[in-house]
Write a sequence for this structure.
Protein backbone atom coordinates (compact mmCIF):
# COMPACT_ATOMS: atom_id res chain seq x y z
CA UNK A 1 0.00 0.00 0.00
CA UNK A 2 1.23 3.50 -0.81
CA UNK A 3 1.24 5.62 2.34
CA UNK A 4 2.31 9.12 3.33
CA UNK A 5 5.76 7.73 4.21
CA UNK A 6 6.34 6.70 0.59
CA UNK A 7 5.25 10.13 -0.58
CA UNK A 8 7.64 11.75 1.91
CA UNK A 9 10.46 9.56 0.58
CA UNK A 10 9.80 10.79 -2.98
CA UNK A 11 9.57 14.44 -1.87
CA UNK A 12 12.72 14.08 0.23
CA UNK A 13 14.74 12.57 -2.62
CA UNK A 14 13.56 15.35 -4.93
CA UNK A 15 14.70 18.07 -2.52
CA UNK A 16 17.96 16.16 -2.02
CA UNK A 17 18.52 16.28 -5.80
CA UNK A 18 17.79 20.04 -5.77
CA UNK A 19 20.32 20.45 -2.95
CA UNK A 20 23.11 18.47 -4.64
CA UNK A 21 22.59 20.15 -8.03
CA UNK A 22 22.63 23.56 -6.31
CA UNK A 23 25.88 22.71 -4.56
CA UNK A 24 27.42 21.73 -7.92
CA UNK A 25 26.24 24.98 -9.56
CA UNK A 26 29.27 27.32 -9.40
CA UNK A 27 27.24 30.24 -10.77
CA UNK A 28 24.47 30.10 -8.17
CA UNK A 29 24.33 33.48 -6.35
CA UNK A 30 23.77 31.86 -2.92
CA UNK A 31 25.18 28.41 -3.65
CA UNK A 32 25.97 27.02 -0.19
CA UNK A 33 23.07 28.65 1.65
CA UNK A 34 20.50 27.47 -0.94
CA UNK A 35 21.99 23.96 -0.99
CA UNK A 36 21.74 23.79 2.82
CA UNK A 37 18.15 25.09 2.74
CA UNK A 38 16.90 22.47 0.25
CA UNK A 39 19.05 19.87 2.02
CA UNK A 40 17.39 20.59 5.38
CA UNK A 41 13.93 20.26 3.81
CA UNK A 42 15.07 16.93 2.34
CA UNK A 43 16.26 15.88 5.83
CA UNK A 44 12.89 16.84 7.32
CA UNK A 45 11.07 14.70 4.75
CA UNK A 46 13.44 11.73 5.02
CA UNK A 47 14.27 11.51 8.74
CA UNK A 48 11.86 13.96 10.43
CA UNK A 49 10.07 11.13 12.22
CA UNK A 50 13.24 9.95 13.98
CA UNK A 51 14.85 13.18 15.21
CA UNK A 52 12.32 13.99 17.92
CA UNK A 53 10.22 17.11 18.55
CA UNK A 54 13.14 19.21 19.75
CA UNK A 55 15.24 18.05 16.79
CA UNK A 56 12.47 19.19 14.44
CA UNK A 57 12.24 22.50 16.28
CA UNK A 58 15.98 23.09 15.84
CA UNK A 59 15.66 22.09 12.19
CA UNK A 60 13.00 24.81 11.79
CA UNK A 61 15.33 27.38 13.38
CA UNK A 62 18.02 26.34 10.89
CA UNK A 63 15.67 26.71 7.91
CA UNK A 64 14.51 30.14 9.10
CA UNK A 65 18.10 31.32 9.67
CA UNK A 66 19.07 30.17 6.15
CA UNK A 67 16.14 31.68 4.26
CA UNK A 68 14.56 34.31 6.49
CA UNK A 69 17.48 36.58 7.32
CA UNK A 70 18.79 37.22 3.81
CA UNK A 71 17.16 36.38 0.48
CA UNK A 72 18.02 33.20 -1.40
CA UNK A 73 19.29 33.60 -4.95
CA UNK A 74 17.74 32.08 -8.07
CA UNK A 75 19.57 29.51 -10.19
CA UNK A 76 19.93 29.91 -13.94
CA UNK A 77 20.79 26.35 -15.01
CA UNK A 78 21.55 25.67 -18.68
CA UNK A 79 18.31 25.07 -20.55
CA UNK A 80 16.83 25.25 -24.04
CA UNK A 81 16.89 28.56 -25.91
CA UNK A 82 13.68 30.43 -26.82
CA UNK A 83 14.16 29.39 -30.47
CA UNK A 84 14.58 25.73 -29.55
CA UNK A 85 11.40 25.95 -27.48
CA UNK A 86 9.44 27.45 -30.38
CA UNK A 87 10.69 24.63 -32.64
CA UNK A 88 9.75 21.92 -30.16
CA UNK A 89 6.36 23.48 -29.47
CA UNK A 90 5.61 23.07 -33.20
CA UNK A 91 7.18 19.61 -33.41
CA UNK A 92 5.46 18.06 -30.34
CA UNK A 93 2.13 19.85 -30.86
CA UNK A 94 -0.70 19.52 -28.39
CA UNK A 95 0.74 16.24 -27.07
CA UNK A 96 2.77 18.48 -24.74
CA UNK A 97 -0.40 18.99 -22.69
CA UNK A 98 -0.94 15.27 -22.12
CA UNK A 99 1.65 14.71 -19.33
CA UNK A 100 0.29 17.76 -17.49
CA UNK A 101 -3.23 16.31 -17.69
CA UNK A 102 -2.11 12.91 -16.36
CA UNK A 103 -1.51 14.52 -12.94
CA UNK A 104 -5.11 15.57 -12.15
CA UNK A 105 -6.52 12.45 -13.80
CA UNK A 106 -4.46 10.18 -11.54
CA UNK A 107 -5.11 12.43 -8.51
CA UNK A 108 -8.88 12.34 -8.93
CA UNK A 109 -9.09 8.80 -10.29
CA UNK A 110 -6.84 7.51 -7.51
CA UNK A 111 -8.89 9.27 -4.83
CA UNK A 112 -12.18 7.92 -6.17
CA UNK A 113 -10.72 4.43 -6.61
CA UNK A 114 -9.31 4.40 -3.07
CA UNK A 115 -12.72 5.34 -1.66
CA UNK A 116 -14.85 3.09 -3.86
CA UNK A 117 -12.92 0.04 -5.04
CA UNK A 118 -11.14 -2.75 -3.13
CA UNK A 119 -8.08 -2.45 -5.38
CA UNK A 120 -7.86 1.31 -4.85
CA UNK A 121 -8.24 0.89 -1.11
CA UNK A 122 -5.48 -1.72 -1.20
CA UNK A 123 -3.23 0.53 -3.32
CA UNK A 124 -3.55 3.92 -1.60
CA UNK A 125 -3.70 4.68 2.14
CA UNK A 126 -6.87 6.34 3.47
CA UNK A 127 -4.84 9.03 5.26
CA UNK A 128 -4.36 12.08 2.96
CA UNK A 129 -5.52 9.97 0.00
CA UNK A 130 -5.85 12.86 -2.43
CA UNK A 131 -2.34 14.18 -1.78
CA UNK A 132 -0.81 10.72 -2.13
CA UNK A 133 -2.70 10.21 -5.40
CA UNK A 134 -1.51 13.64 -6.54
CA UNK A 135 2.11 12.71 -5.83
CA UNK A 136 1.62 9.41 -7.64
CA UNK A 137 0.19 11.28 -10.63
CA UNK A 138 3.25 13.56 -10.72
CA UNK A 139 5.64 10.59 -10.68
CA UNK A 140 3.73 8.72 -13.42
CA UNK A 141 3.46 11.85 -15.57
CA UNK A 142 7.17 12.58 -15.14
CA UNK A 143 8.05 8.99 -16.13
CA UNK A 144 5.86 9.28 -19.24
CA UNK A 145 7.34 12.66 -20.19
CA UNK A 146 10.87 11.39 -19.59
CA UNK A 147 10.39 8.28 -21.74
CA UNK A 148 8.80 10.31 -24.52
CA UNK A 149 10.98 13.43 -24.63
CA UNK A 150 14.34 11.81 -23.75
CA UNK A 151 15.89 14.84 -22.04
CA UNK A 152 19.34 14.70 -20.36
CA UNK A 153 19.05 12.61 -17.22
CA UNK A 154 19.26 15.55 -14.79
CA UNK A 155 17.07 17.93 -16.82
CA UNK A 156 13.81 17.55 -14.80
CA UNK A 157 15.65 18.34 -11.57
CA UNK A 158 17.63 21.22 -13.07
CA UNK A 159 14.33 22.69 -14.34
CA UNK A 160 12.59 21.90 -11.04
CA UNK A 161 15.41 23.66 -9.19
CA UNK A 162 14.88 26.73 -11.35
CA UNK A 163 11.17 26.76 -10.40
CA UNK A 164 11.65 26.01 -6.70
CA UNK A 165 14.29 28.76 -6.45
CA UNK A 166 11.75 31.20 -7.89
CA UNK A 167 9.30 30.21 -5.12
CA UNK A 168 12.04 30.47 -2.48
CA UNK A 169 11.24 30.66 1.25
CA UNK A 170 7.50 30.68 0.50
CA UNK A 171 7.58 26.88 0.09
CA UNK A 172 7.64 26.70 3.91
CA UNK A 173 4.94 29.23 4.77
CA UNK A 174 1.79 27.01 4.89
CA UNK A 175 3.60 24.47 7.04
CA UNK A 176 4.95 27.19 9.35
CA UNK A 177 1.48 28.75 9.76
CA UNK A 178 -0.04 25.37 10.61
CA UNK A 179 2.68 24.88 13.25
CA UNK A 180 2.07 28.35 14.68
CA UNK A 181 -1.61 27.42 14.89
CA UNK A 182 -0.65 24.43 17.06
CA UNK A 183 1.28 26.70 19.45
CA UNK A 184 -1.69 29.13 19.57
CA UNK A 185 -3.99 26.20 20.38
CA UNK A 186 -1.67 25.02 23.15
CA UNK A 187 -1.63 28.53 24.68
CA UNK A 188 -5.44 29.08 24.25
CA UNK A 189 -4.99 32.22 22.13
CA UNK A 190 -8.38 31.53 20.52
CA UNK A 191 -10.23 31.61 23.81
CA UNK A 192 -8.62 34.90 24.84
CA UNK A 193 -9.38 36.58 21.49
CA UNK A 194 -12.98 35.37 21.71
CA UNK A 195 -13.50 36.79 25.19
CA UNK A 196 -11.95 40.08 24.13
CA UNK A 197 -14.23 40.57 21.12
CA UNK A 198 -17.33 39.48 22.96
CA UNK A 199 -16.62 42.00 25.74
CA UNK A 200 -15.75 45.02 23.56
CA UNK A 201 -18.25 44.93 20.62
CA UNK A 202 -21.89 45.49 21.62
CA UNK A 203 -23.45 42.59 19.71
CA UNK A 204 -27.01 43.65 20.44
CA UNK A 205 -28.75 43.06 17.10
CA UNK A 206 -28.44 40.26 14.53
CA UNK A 207 -27.16 42.76 11.93
CA UNK A 208 -24.27 43.97 14.12
CA UNK A 209 -23.40 40.38 15.03
CA UNK A 210 -23.40 39.31 11.35
CA UNK A 211 -21.13 42.22 10.40
CA UNK A 212 -18.80 41.61 13.38
CA UNK A 213 -18.55 37.87 12.61
CA UNK A 214 -17.88 38.29 8.87
CA UNK A 215 -15.47 41.23 9.21
CA UNK A 216 -13.76 39.45 12.11
CA UNK A 217 -13.35 36.29 9.98
CA UNK A 218 -11.85 38.31 7.11
CA UNK A 219 -9.59 40.44 9.35
CA UNK A 220 -8.26 37.52 11.39
CA UNK A 221 -7.66 35.62 8.16
CA UNK A 222 -5.62 38.55 6.81
CA UNK A 223 -3.40 38.35 9.90
CA UNK A 224 -3.10 34.58 10.00
CA UNK A 225 -3.08 34.00 6.24
CA UNK A 226 -5.54 31.15 6.69
CA UNK A 227 -9.31 31.06 7.19
CA UNK A 228 -8.93 27.72 8.94
CA UNK A 229 -7.13 29.46 11.82
CA UNK A 230 -9.72 32.23 12.05
CA UNK A 231 -12.79 29.98 12.02
CA UNK A 232 -12.47 28.32 15.46
CA UNK A 233 -11.60 31.66 17.09
CA UNK A 234 -14.36 33.80 15.57
CA UNK A 235 -17.03 31.10 15.70
CA UNK A 236 -16.32 30.44 19.38
CA UNK A 237 -16.42 34.20 20.05
CA UNK A 238 -19.43 35.40 17.98
CA UNK A 239 -20.83 32.67 15.72
CA UNK A 240 -21.94 30.12 18.32
CA UNK A 241 -22.87 32.21 21.39
CA UNK A 242 -24.46 35.20 19.63
CA UNK A 243 -25.61 34.33 16.09
CA UNK A 244 -26.63 30.72 16.70
CA UNK A 245 -27.62 30.51 20.37
CA UNK A 246 -28.85 34.03 21.17
CA UNK A 247 -30.41 35.03 17.82
CA UNK A 248 -31.31 31.47 16.76
CA UNK A 249 -29.48 31.61 13.40
CA UNK A 250 -29.18 28.49 11.23
CA UNK A 251 -25.95 26.69 12.13
CA UNK A 252 -25.07 25.52 8.62
CA UNK A 253 -25.72 28.91 7.00
CA UNK A 254 -23.79 30.90 9.63
CA UNK A 255 -20.77 28.61 9.47
CA UNK A 256 -20.67 28.03 5.70
CA UNK A 257 -20.98 31.72 4.84
CA UNK A 258 -18.69 32.72 7.71
CA UNK A 259 -15.94 30.51 6.27
CA UNK A 260 -16.45 32.12 2.84
CA UNK A 261 -16.15 35.57 4.46
CA UNK A 262 -12.79 34.34 5.75
CA UNK A 263 -11.80 33.36 2.21
CA UNK A 264 -12.34 37.03 1.21
CA UNK A 265 -9.59 37.81 3.73
CA UNK A 266 -7.33 35.16 2.18
CA UNK A 267 -7.58 37.00 -1.14
CA UNK A 268 -6.23 40.20 0.45
CA UNK A 269 -3.17 39.03 2.43
CA UNK A 270 0.45 38.24 1.55
CA UNK A 271 0.42 35.82 4.51
CA UNK A 272 -1.55 33.42 2.29
CA UNK A 273 1.70 32.78 0.48
CA UNK A 274 0.79 29.77 -1.61
CA UNK A 275 -2.17 31.62 -3.13
CA UNK A 276 -0.82 35.18 -3.34
CA UNK A 277 3.00 35.15 -3.12
CA UNK A 278 3.87 31.92 -4.94
CA UNK A 279 2.04 32.96 -8.14
CA UNK A 280 3.62 36.45 -8.03
CA UNK A 281 7.04 34.76 -7.90
CA UNK A 282 6.16 32.12 -10.50
CA UNK A 283 4.84 34.81 -12.87
CA UNK A 284 7.89 37.00 -12.23
CA UNK A 285 5.87 40.09 -11.35
CA UNK A 286 8.13 43.13 -10.76
CA UNK A 287 6.34 43.94 -7.48
CA UNK A 288 6.42 40.38 -6.15
CA UNK A 289 8.15 41.37 -2.89
CA UNK A 290 5.65 44.11 -2.10
CA UNK A 291 3.00 43.28 0.57
CA UNK A 292 0.31 44.35 -1.90
CA UNK A 293 1.66 42.66 -5.02
CA UNK A 294 -0.16 42.64 -8.35
CA UNK A 295 -2.08 39.44 -7.59
CA UNK A 296 -3.48 40.82 -4.33
CA UNK A 297 -4.35 44.17 -5.96
CA UNK A 298 -6.21 42.30 -8.70
CA UNK A 299 -8.18 40.39 -6.04
CA UNK A 300 -9.09 43.18 -3.59
CA UNK A 301 -12.10 44.60 -5.53
CA UNK A 302 -13.69 41.16 -5.90
CA UNK A 303 -12.86 40.28 -2.28
CA UNK A 304 -14.44 43.44 -0.81
CA UNK A 305 -17.62 43.10 -2.90
CA UNK A 306 -17.88 39.42 -1.96
CA UNK A 307 -17.40 40.23 1.74
CA UNK A 308 -20.37 42.61 1.51
CA UNK A 309 -22.44 40.02 -0.39
CA UNK A 310 -21.63 37.36 2.21
CA UNK A 311 -22.92 39.63 4.98
CA UNK A 312 -26.12 40.33 3.03
CA UNK A 313 -26.61 36.62 2.33
CA UNK A 314 -26.01 35.59 5.94
CA UNK A 315 -28.35 38.28 7.27
CA UNK A 316 -31.04 37.41 4.71
CA UNK A 317 -30.81 33.61 5.00
CA UNK A 318 -29.60 32.61 8.47
CA UNK A 319 -32.64 33.81 10.41
CA UNK A 320 -35.17 32.56 7.85
CA UNK A 321 -34.30 28.86 7.54
CA UNK B 1 -4.26 38.14 28.11
CA UNK B 2 -0.51 38.46 27.50
CA UNK B 3 -0.57 35.54 25.02
CA UNK B 4 -2.10 38.04 22.56
CA UNK B 5 1.36 39.56 22.30
CA UNK B 6 2.09 36.69 19.87
CA UNK B 7 -0.68 37.95 17.56
CA UNK B 8 0.74 41.45 18.03
CA UNK B 9 4.13 40.20 16.83
CA UNK B 10 2.47 38.88 13.65
CA UNK B 11 0.80 42.22 12.96
CA UNK B 12 3.99 44.18 13.69
CA UNK B 13 6.12 41.94 11.49
CA UNK B 14 3.53 42.31 8.74
CA UNK B 15 3.60 46.13 9.03
CA UNK B 16 7.42 46.24 9.14
CA UNK B 17 7.58 43.90 6.10
CA UNK B 18 9.84 41.44 7.88
CA UNK B 19 10.29 37.98 6.45
CA UNK B 20 7.18 36.01 7.52
CA UNK B 21 9.20 32.91 8.49
CA UNK B 22 11.14 34.92 11.07
CA UNK B 23 7.97 36.62 12.29
CA UNK B 24 6.19 33.27 12.76
CA UNK B 25 9.00 31.77 14.85
CA UNK B 26 9.23 34.88 17.06
CA UNK B 27 5.44 34.92 17.44
CA UNK B 28 5.39 31.27 18.50
CA UNK B 29 8.15 31.76 21.09
CA UNK B 30 6.54 34.94 22.47
CA UNK B 31 3.17 33.17 22.73
CA UNK B 32 4.67 30.18 24.53
CA UNK B 33 6.64 32.38 26.95
CA UNK B 34 3.66 34.63 27.71
CA UNK B 35 1.46 31.59 28.41
CA UNK B 36 4.01 30.47 31.00
CA UNK B 37 4.51 33.94 32.47
CA UNK B 38 3.15 34.36 36.01
CA UNK B 39 4.34 36.02 39.21
CA UNK B 40 7.25 34.11 40.69
CA UNK B 41 8.23 32.30 37.49
CA UNK B 42 12.03 32.31 37.26
CA UNK B 43 14.41 32.30 34.27
CA UNK B 44 14.83 28.51 34.48
CA UNK B 45 11.08 27.97 34.11
CA UNK B 46 10.94 30.45 31.22
CA UNK B 47 13.78 28.63 29.49
CA UNK B 48 11.85 25.38 29.94
CA UNK B 49 8.75 27.07 28.45
CA UNK B 50 10.74 28.25 25.44
CA UNK B 51 12.10 24.75 24.86
CA UNK B 52 8.68 23.13 25.16
CA UNK B 53 7.26 25.73 22.74
CA UNK B 54 10.01 24.86 20.26
CA UNK B 55 9.18 21.18 20.75
CA UNK B 56 5.47 21.77 20.12
CA UNK B 57 6.34 23.80 17.01
CA UNK B 58 8.72 21.09 15.79
CA UNK B 59 6.14 18.36 16.34
CA UNK B 60 3.45 20.29 14.42
CA UNK B 61 5.99 21.09 11.66
CA UNK B 62 6.79 17.41 11.27
CA UNK B 63 3.08 16.47 11.34
CA UNK B 64 2.25 18.90 8.52
CA UNK B 65 4.95 17.85 6.03
CA UNK B 66 2.21 16.71 3.64
CA UNK B 67 1.97 20.29 2.28
CA UNK B 68 5.19 19.56 0.37
CA UNK B 69 3.74 16.71 -1.71
CA UNK B 70 2.28 19.27 -4.12
CA UNK B 71 5.83 20.36 -5.08
CA UNK B 72 6.53 17.00 -6.73
CA UNK B 73 4.91 18.50 -9.83
CA UNK B 74 7.76 21.02 -10.27
CA UNK B 75 10.22 18.74 -12.16
CA UNK B 76 7.41 17.75 -14.56
CA UNK B 77 6.31 21.33 -15.24
CA UNK B 78 9.96 22.42 -15.58
CA UNK B 79 10.66 19.64 -18.05
CA UNK B 80 7.57 20.42 -20.14
CA UNK B 81 8.50 24.11 -20.15
CA UNK B 82 11.96 23.14 -21.37
CA UNK B 83 10.29 21.34 -24.28
CA UNK B 84 8.07 24.29 -25.23
CA UNK B 85 4.85 23.95 -23.17
CA UNK B 86 4.33 27.68 -22.74
CA UNK B 87 5.15 28.37 -26.39
CA UNK B 88 2.61 25.69 -27.35
CA UNK B 89 -0.10 27.37 -25.22
CA UNK B 90 0.61 30.64 -27.00
CA UNK B 91 0.32 28.93 -30.38
CA UNK B 92 -3.03 27.39 -29.44
CA UNK B 93 -4.55 30.66 -28.31
CA UNK B 94 -3.15 32.62 -31.23
CA UNK B 95 -5.26 30.37 -33.47
CA UNK B 96 -8.48 30.94 -31.53
CA UNK B 97 -10.39 33.79 -33.12
CA UNK B 98 -13.02 34.75 -30.52
CA UNK B 99 -10.82 34.81 -27.44
CA UNK B 100 -9.74 37.97 -25.65
CA UNK B 101 -7.78 37.92 -22.40
CA UNK B 102 -10.90 38.74 -20.36
CA UNK B 103 -13.18 36.22 -22.08
CA UNK B 104 -10.54 33.51 -21.82
CA UNK B 105 -10.25 34.12 -18.07
CA UNK B 106 -14.07 34.14 -17.78
CA UNK B 107 -14.18 30.65 -19.31
CA UNK B 108 -11.37 29.59 -16.97
CA UNK B 109 -13.23 31.05 -13.96
CA UNK B 110 -16.29 28.99 -14.80
CA UNK B 111 -14.29 25.79 -15.34
CA UNK B 112 -12.27 26.34 -12.14
CA UNK B 113 -15.40 26.89 -10.04
CA UNK B 114 -17.26 23.96 -11.60
CA UNK B 115 -14.38 21.49 -11.25
CA UNK B 116 -13.58 22.65 -7.68
CA UNK B 117 -17.24 22.13 -6.77
CA UNK B 118 -16.82 18.53 -7.94
CA UNK B 119 -13.76 18.13 -5.73
CA UNK B 120 -11.32 18.42 -8.62
CA UNK B 121 -9.32 21.21 -6.99
CA UNK B 122 -6.02 19.80 -8.27
CA UNK B 123 -7.01 20.47 -11.90
CA UNK B 124 -5.95 24.10 -11.51
CA UNK B 125 -3.35 25.92 -9.46
CA UNK B 126 -0.48 28.30 -10.02
CA UNK B 127 2.42 25.97 -10.87
CA UNK B 128 0.14 23.59 -12.79
CA UNK B 129 -2.14 25.87 -14.82
CA UNK B 130 -1.57 29.60 -14.32
CA UNK B 131 2.15 29.88 -15.05
CA UNK B 132 2.46 27.36 -17.87
CA UNK B 133 -0.96 27.84 -19.51
CA UNK B 134 -3.47 30.49 -18.45
CA UNK B 135 -1.14 33.50 -18.19
CA UNK B 136 0.67 32.87 -21.51
CA UNK B 137 -2.65 32.16 -23.23
CA UNK B 138 -4.20 35.37 -21.88
CA UNK B 139 -1.10 37.37 -22.88
CA UNK B 140 -1.24 35.79 -26.33
CA UNK B 141 -4.93 36.65 -26.68
CA UNK B 142 -4.32 40.28 -25.75
CA UNK B 143 -1.35 40.51 -28.13
CA UNK B 144 -3.40 39.35 -31.10
CA UNK B 145 -5.20 42.71 -30.99
CA UNK B 146 -1.86 44.54 -31.12
CA UNK B 147 1.13 45.10 -28.87
CA UNK B 148 0.59 45.66 -25.15
CA UNK B 149 2.70 47.58 -22.65
CA UNK B 150 4.81 45.80 -20.04
CA UNK B 151 2.46 47.10 -17.35
CA UNK B 152 -0.54 45.59 -19.14
CA UNK B 153 1.32 42.29 -19.43
CA UNK B 154 1.89 42.21 -15.66
CA UNK B 155 -1.76 43.12 -15.03
CA UNK B 156 -2.85 40.20 -17.23
CA UNK B 157 -0.58 37.83 -15.31
CA UNK B 158 -1.88 39.13 -11.96
CA UNK B 159 -5.50 38.79 -13.08
CA UNK B 160 -4.83 35.23 -14.26
CA UNK B 161 -3.58 34.25 -10.80
CA UNK B 162 -6.45 36.13 -9.14
CA UNK B 163 -9.00 34.32 -11.33
CA UNK B 164 -7.57 30.93 -10.38
CA UNK B 165 -7.76 31.77 -6.65
CA UNK B 166 -11.28 33.20 -6.83
CA UNK B 167 -12.57 30.25 -8.85
CA UNK B 168 -11.04 27.84 -6.33
CA UNK B 169 -12.16 29.59 -3.13
CA UNK B 170 -15.76 30.10 -4.24
CA UNK B 171 -16.11 26.65 -5.76
CA UNK B 172 -14.38 24.21 -3.41
CA UNK B 173 -16.77 24.66 -0.47
CA UNK B 174 -19.59 23.16 -2.55
CA UNK B 175 -17.72 19.86 -2.42
CA UNK B 176 -18.51 17.91 0.74
CA UNK B 177 -15.08 16.42 1.43
CA UNK B 178 -12.94 19.56 1.22
CA UNK B 179 -10.75 20.59 4.19
CA UNK B 180 -12.78 23.61 5.27
CA UNK B 181 -16.02 21.58 5.40
CA UNK B 182 -14.29 18.85 7.42
CA UNK B 183 -12.96 21.51 9.80
CA UNK B 184 -16.43 23.01 10.32
CA UNK B 185 -18.07 19.63 10.95
CA UNK B 186 -15.33 18.74 13.44
CA UNK B 187 -15.49 22.08 15.25
CA UNK B 188 -19.28 21.99 15.59
CA UNK B 189 -19.16 18.41 16.83
CA UNK B 190 -16.78 19.55 19.60
CA UNK B 191 -19.38 22.20 20.46
CA UNK B 192 -22.11 19.54 20.63
CA UNK B 193 -23.83 20.36 17.32
CA UNK B 194 -24.16 17.66 14.67
CA UNK B 195 -24.20 19.02 11.10
CA UNK B 196 -24.03 16.99 7.90
CA UNK B 197 -21.31 18.08 5.44
CA UNK B 198 -23.96 18.38 2.72
CA UNK B 199 -25.92 21.00 4.73
CA UNK B 200 -22.81 23.19 4.88
CA UNK B 201 -21.87 22.72 1.24
CA UNK B 202 -25.37 23.58 -0.05
CA UNK B 203 -25.16 27.00 1.62
CA UNK B 204 -21.90 27.74 -0.21
CA UNK B 205 -23.83 27.82 -3.50
CA UNK B 206 -25.39 31.34 -3.23
CA UNK B 207 -21.95 32.87 -2.61
CA UNK B 208 -20.45 30.82 -5.46
CA UNK B 209 -23.02 32.20 -7.92
CA UNK B 210 -22.47 35.75 -6.66
CA UNK B 211 -18.69 35.35 -7.02
CA UNK B 212 -19.07 34.22 -10.63
CA UNK B 213 -21.24 37.24 -11.43
CA UNK B 214 -18.98 39.75 -9.64
CA UNK B 215 -15.61 38.53 -10.89
CA UNK B 216 -17.03 37.62 -14.30
CA UNK B 217 -18.26 41.19 -14.76
CA UNK B 218 -14.79 42.49 -13.84
CA UNK B 219 -13.21 40.15 -16.38
CA UNK B 220 -15.52 41.33 -19.17
CA UNK B 221 -14.52 44.92 -18.41
CA UNK B 222 -10.84 43.97 -18.08
CA UNK B 223 -10.00 43.95 -21.82
CA UNK B 224 -10.97 47.60 -22.22
CA UNK B 225 -8.60 48.69 -19.43
CA UNK B 226 -5.46 47.18 -20.98
CA UNK B 227 -2.91 49.74 -22.10
CA UNK B 228 -1.94 49.36 -25.75
CA UNK B 229 1.45 50.31 -27.12
CA UNK B 230 4.84 48.86 -27.95
CA UNK B 231 6.60 47.15 -25.02
CA UNK B 232 9.56 49.53 -25.54
CA UNK B 233 7.33 52.40 -24.42
CA UNK B 234 7.19 50.85 -20.93
CA UNK B 235 8.95 53.66 -19.07
CA UNK B 236 7.00 56.40 -20.83
CA UNK B 237 3.67 54.61 -20.36
CA UNK B 238 4.30 54.05 -16.66
CA UNK B 239 5.18 57.65 -15.96
CA UNK B 240 2.14 58.86 -17.93
CA UNK B 241 -0.26 56.77 -15.89
CA UNK B 242 1.41 57.87 -12.69
CA UNK B 243 1.06 61.50 -13.77
CA UNK B 244 -2.61 60.89 -14.56
CA UNK B 245 -3.18 59.54 -11.06
Amino acid sequence: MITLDHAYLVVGLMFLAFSILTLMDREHPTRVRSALFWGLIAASMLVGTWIGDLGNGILVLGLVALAGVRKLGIARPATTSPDEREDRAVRYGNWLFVPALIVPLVAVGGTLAAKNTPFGAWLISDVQTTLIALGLGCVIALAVAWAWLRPPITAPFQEGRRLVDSIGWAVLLPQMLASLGAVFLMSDVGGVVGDLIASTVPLTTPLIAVVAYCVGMAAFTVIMGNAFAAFPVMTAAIGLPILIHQFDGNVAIVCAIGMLAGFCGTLMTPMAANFNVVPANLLELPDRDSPLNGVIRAQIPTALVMLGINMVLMYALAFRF
Amino acid sequence: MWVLLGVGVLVLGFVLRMNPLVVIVISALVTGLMAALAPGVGPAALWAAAVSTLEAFGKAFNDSRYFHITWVILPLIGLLEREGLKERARIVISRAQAATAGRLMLVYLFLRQATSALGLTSLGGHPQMVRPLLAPMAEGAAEREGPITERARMRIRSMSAATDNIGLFFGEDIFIAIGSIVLMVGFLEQAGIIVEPLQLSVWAIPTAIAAFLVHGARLLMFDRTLERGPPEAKAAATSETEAAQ
Observations:
- Residues 233-245 of chain B have pLDDT under 50 and may be disordered.
- Chain B touches chain A through 108 residues (CB under 8 Å).
- The CA atoms of residues 103 and 220 of chain B lie 6 Å apart.
